[in-house]
Amino acid sequence: MNKNQIIENYGAKNIKISDDLICWMRSNHAGETGAVWIYLGASCAFWSKKVREMAAEHRQTELHHLIVMEHIVAKHRRSNLIFLWKIMAFSLGFLSSIFGYRAFCITIKAVETFVEKHYNHQIEYLKTTNNNQDLLSVLQKCCAEEVHHKQDAYERIAHHKIGIIGRFWLKIIGSGSNLAVKAAKKF
């Protein structure tokens, strides 16, 4: 699928972003950039075929999300810290894969749990304001796909149990993601 087909498939062709939504959309663009780079980092895990396969599967969807966000968010309105998000995300994907497939799956579950909440805040805002229904539809589609990634990662975690170290890691990623969103909204 080419870029125009992806944009059309998500219903994002004619979306205009009002000033009250630009901070959120800037953070969405930064987040989708980060997602692509998490999977790029994980794809370097030459020691784990399972990590590389999962990264390739999920990265394709994240690339679609990034194409959509690049279409929606004008270049001059994107985060000025994209280089930082790429470095941090690549590092997260690579480092979590060093600790193995299970650690990588826990990382993806944590990231996608945060992304689901982040998108749902926007979805609820658009629903209550009855503002920009086309954008609402795009965000709902992206969110549903992120939830699928979260569920997929959880199902791949052996025995579906996350121990104390895993729960601590979930909190670290949630806190880090929250800080990244705040920074992306401002810069």
Detailed description of the structure:
This protein has 187 residues and is an all-alpha fold. The chain has one domain: Ferritin (Up-down Bundle), CATH 1.20.1260. The chain is built from seven helices and no strands. Helix 2 packs parallel to helix 4 (82-98). It is globular, with a radius of gyration of 16 Å. The chain starts with a helix and ends with a helix. 39% of the residues are buried. The mean pLDDT is 94.
Structure described in brief:
With 187 residues, the protein is mostly helical. The chain has 7 helices and no strands.
Primary descriptors:
mainly alpha, 78% helix, Ferritin, 187 residues, 7 helices
What order do the helices and strands come in, and which of them pair?
Layout lengths: L2 H7 L12 H21 L6 H24 L9 H17 L2 H29 L3 H24 L7 H23 L1
Helix pairs in contact: 2-3, 2-4, 2-5, 2-7, 4-5, 5-6, 5-7
- Shape annotation: globular
Q: Terminal Cα separation, in Å?
A: 32 Å
Over the alpha carbons, how many angstroms does the gyration radius reach?
16 Å
Number of domains: 1
**Major β-sheet annotation:** none
